[in-house]
Amino acid sequence: MPQWNLEINGKTENVEAVGSTALLWVLREDLQLTGAKYGCGEGSCGACTVLVDGKAERSCLLPVSALKGKKIQTIEGLSSGEQLHPVQQAFLDEEAFQCGFCTPGMILSTVALLSKSARPPTELVRQALNGHVCRCGAYPRILAAVELAARGGKR
Ligand code: FES
Ligand code: FES
Fold first, then answer.
1. Domain boundary residue among 77, 109, 140?
2. Which domain holds residue 124?
3. Ligand 2 contacts CB of residue 92 (under 6 A)
4. Which of 16, 105, 113, 142 is the most exposed, having the fewest neighbouring CB atoms within 10 Å of its CB?
């Protein structure tokens, strides 16, 4: 079986997998990083979103063979020890989740968005989160959390 060195959350991880294996399965099954969720498996729900070189990507669609030299970040690598990332804190402060299944993907896409645009207009936020499905319908609170994070956590 081929071996791959993947840079995940600042650490190099060596995994064995067929090259076409989706990153999502390597994260969840081999590395026990279960924050990225399996929803649709076809790029339509956003539950599996991770950051690749700072860009939000659907890990269910990314073959492990395409990730050489890329920096992968999952929700597990976002906080600094006990200190939540400001976007995580904003989601918590706005109670922007119910079951939490969509939350890691929503948060990582928000992190990617705010790294490009510190104070994005609502339309841009909607575009960035378009394709992220929240089956609990927490969308209004998710939008409020993104706006709170964009204001630096200030109400
Ligand atoms: S599981 Fe990847 S987009 Fe739905
Ligand atoms: S909080 Fe349940 S899917 Fe979004």
1. 77
2. 86-150
3. no
4. 16
Residue entry with tokens 């649709």? 40
Model confidence pLDDT, tens digit, residues 47-101: 999 999 999 999 999 999 999 999 999 999 999 999 999 999 999 999 999 999 9
Q: Which residue has the tokens 């279960």?
A: 34
Q: State whether 73 and 128 are in the same domain.
A: no
Q: Give residue-wise pLDDT tens across range 92-145.
A: 999 999 999 999 999 999 999 999 999 999 999 999 999 999 999 999 999 999
30 burial via Cβ count (<10 Å: 0-12, 13-18, 19+): middle
Whether the model pTM is above 0.90: yes
Do 142 and 87 meet the contact criterion of CB atoms below 8 Å apart? no
Q: Which atom of ligand 1 is nearest to the CA of 48?
A: 2
Ligand 2 pocket, 102 CB below 6 A? Answer: yes
Residue 7 shares a structural domain with residue 67: yes
- Are 128 and 113 in contact by the 8 Å Cβ rule? The answer is yes
